[in-house]
Task: inverse folding
């Protein structure tokens, strides 16, 4: 099977992750702009960060046969530094229309402050102007209200819900998101977000329409193989293959494909990567454990 | 059809631009060509940097990426305009971007290097590759030296290759020291360093010493090395070294042993390097590593 992980922060991951991801069938990934674990203090570091997302990280992924896309945005935490946020806002249009930029993201709320709301709104307008999808981070705290509010604001700004991905859903938020016609992203992330057994139950209950999953793997304890592992678990738990394909590949492609910057041909027609391809003299691909429905259950569970 | 549309405005265009537009018109629709011509005209009348930046970014949305299939005849034309220019691997999108850059440059030659710096600050991978591949065509080429050096420091091989391989810029503008560093890095990164313009004429004793150290280091680590490097080591190959490295080469592989012998013969006879023999060695080496 092939997979798309539509939310993963490769900047904080190693080359081992890339080779395991490719071996497990991940063909394309989307890296949303986010914060780096600590607050930045000047606009230059934002510029270099965005520039690495469309340059170096894209190259690094290509070494492993993975197509790398990204979304560009000012994250909610750093929106609270208004002086800096203004400068970052000026920077965004210089990156948002680059090739392979599939949306504005990840934006939204963290503590649901006034400043967060201000820059959320500004970026929604930018997305609308540039005709790009939006990838919305929903808050960890006061989540249900924050999720509803994010959708209210999107509609208020005249965005089409089919162009908006509401991410990091759980059992409490999913119904409203689907009912209002938005895309519902689920993050399979140990301990703090969704476990994949719970995810199986969500798909059993709601089906596969408008739902897709991601790993949001970053610098925390997270799992870059969350998408293929969850697909394997779904197979094992009897979910229809067509539904698995949608939530682990097809739906993300439709949602972010609206940008016009992400097409199946991008990886289907890509030359077979040369297994002898050298990266600083070292061959990059090695045999790795591939999660399949035959794997030991222990190995594919994410709790 | 497309071709005919493109030729109308060409009289006022400069030579490389004309060639680029011809190639684009061969593979792109007349609408795509029209967009490009209109953008190009804009710089000729106004030379506005903002327009260039916008048009440059918009190219992938306006021009379908297609191989230009540039054959030997077109390469010949290109090289009569710019010696050692290798446009063979250009696609329509890159050609369109280069055309825009050149049109802007001919209007604003003074501002142009600053504009290129600005573009590179936020350039994605394909944009970087395009800009570095066009360096040899830019007016006032000496102003792009720092830009070219940064390109050679890139860790993305696709970017490094563009400035390094089959690109006349380093050959024409790099000091010997910088040129040597470039060849050494290319060899170190196991890139096909023999495709650097100026190889082997620009081979020199300093470079030979650097490369000899590199090969020695690799062999000590039990790693193979491309035998073509010996062609560049020739100036440093004293009799003692010849004996030492011939023995070591024997332990590595027969092709390298042949290379050491060939290099020493050239060194002794100060004969003109026999390219054919080196090409045969490379061919042998490539067959060997692919089986």
Result:
């Amino acid at each position: 099977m092939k997979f798309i992980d539509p939310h993963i922060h490769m900047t904080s991951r190693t080359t081992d992750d890339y080779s395991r991801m490719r071996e497990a069938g991940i063909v394309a990934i989307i890296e949303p702009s986010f914060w780096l674990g600590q607050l930045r203090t000047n606009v230059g570091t934002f510029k270099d960060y965005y520039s690495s997302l469309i340059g170096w990280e894209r190259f690094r992924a290509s070494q492993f046969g993975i197509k790398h896309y990204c979304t560009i945005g000012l994250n909610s935490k750093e929106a609270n530094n208004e002086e800096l946020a203004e400068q970052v806002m000026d920077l965004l249009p210089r990156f948002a229309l680059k090739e392979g930029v599939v949306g504005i993201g990840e934006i939204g709320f963290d503590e649901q402050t006034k400043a967060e709301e201000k820059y959320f709104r500004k970026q929604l307008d930018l997305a609308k102007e540039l005709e790009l999808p939006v990838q919305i981070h929903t808050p960890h705290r006061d989540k249900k209200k924050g999720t509803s509010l994010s959708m209210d604001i999107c509609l208020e700004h005249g965005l089409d819900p089919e162009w908006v991905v509401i991410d990091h859903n759980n059992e409490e938020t999913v119904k409203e998101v689907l009912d209002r016609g938005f895309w519902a992203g689920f993050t399979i992330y140990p301990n703090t977000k969704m476990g994949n057994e719970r995810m199986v139950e969500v798909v059993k209950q709601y089906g596969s329409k408008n739902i897709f999953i991601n790993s949001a793997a970053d610098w925390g304890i997270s799992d870059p193989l969350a998408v293929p592992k969850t697909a394997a678990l779904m197979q094992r738990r009897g979910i229809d293959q067509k539904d698995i394909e949608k939530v682990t590949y097809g739906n993300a492609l439709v949602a972010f494909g609206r940008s016009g910057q992400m097409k199946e041909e991008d990886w289907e027609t890509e030359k077979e990567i040369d297994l002898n391809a050298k990266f600083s003299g070292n061959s990059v691909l090695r045999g790795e454990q591939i999660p399949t429905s035959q794997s030991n259950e222990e190995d594919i569970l994410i709790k | 059809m497309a071709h005919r549309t493109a030729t109308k405005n060409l009289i006022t265009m400069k030579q490389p631009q004309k060639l680029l537009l011809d190639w684009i018109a061969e593979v792109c629709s007349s609408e795509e060509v029209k967009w490009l011509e209109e953008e190009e005209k804009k710089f000729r009348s106004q030379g506005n940097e903002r327009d260039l930046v916008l048009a440059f970014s918009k190219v992938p949305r306006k021009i379908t990426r297609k191989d230009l299939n540039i054959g030997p005849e077109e390469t010949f034309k290109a090289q009569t305009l710019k010696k050692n220019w290798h446009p063979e691997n250009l696609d329509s999108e890159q050609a369109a971007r280069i055309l825009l850059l050149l049109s802007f440059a001919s209007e604003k030659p003074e501002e142009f290097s600053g504009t290129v710096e600005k573009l590179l600050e936020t350039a994605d991978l394909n944009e970087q590759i395009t800009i570095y591949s066009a360096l040899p065509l830019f007016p006032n080429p000496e102003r792009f030296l720092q830009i070219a050096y940064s390109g050679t420091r890139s860790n993305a091989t696709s970017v490094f290759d563009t400035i390094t391989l089959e690109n006349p810029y380093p050959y024409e503008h790099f000091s010997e020291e910088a040129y040597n560093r470039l060849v050494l890095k290319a060899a170190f990164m196991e890139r096909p360093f023999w495709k650097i313009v100026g190889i082997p004429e620009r081979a020199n004793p300093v470079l030979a010493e650097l490369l000899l150290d590199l090969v020695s280091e690799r062999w000590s680590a039990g790693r193979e090395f491309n035998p073509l490097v010996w062609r560049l080591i020739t100036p440093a190959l004293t009799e003692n070294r010849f004996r030492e490295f011939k023995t070591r080469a024997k332990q590595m592989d027969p092709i390298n042993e042949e290379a050491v012998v060939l290099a020493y013969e050239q060194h002794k006879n100060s004969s003109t390097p026999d390219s054919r023999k080196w090409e045969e060695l490379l061919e042998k080496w490539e067959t060997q590593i692919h089986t």
Notes: The longest helix of chain A spans residues 114-130. The longest strand of chain A covers residues 101-108. Chain A has a mean pLDDT of 92.
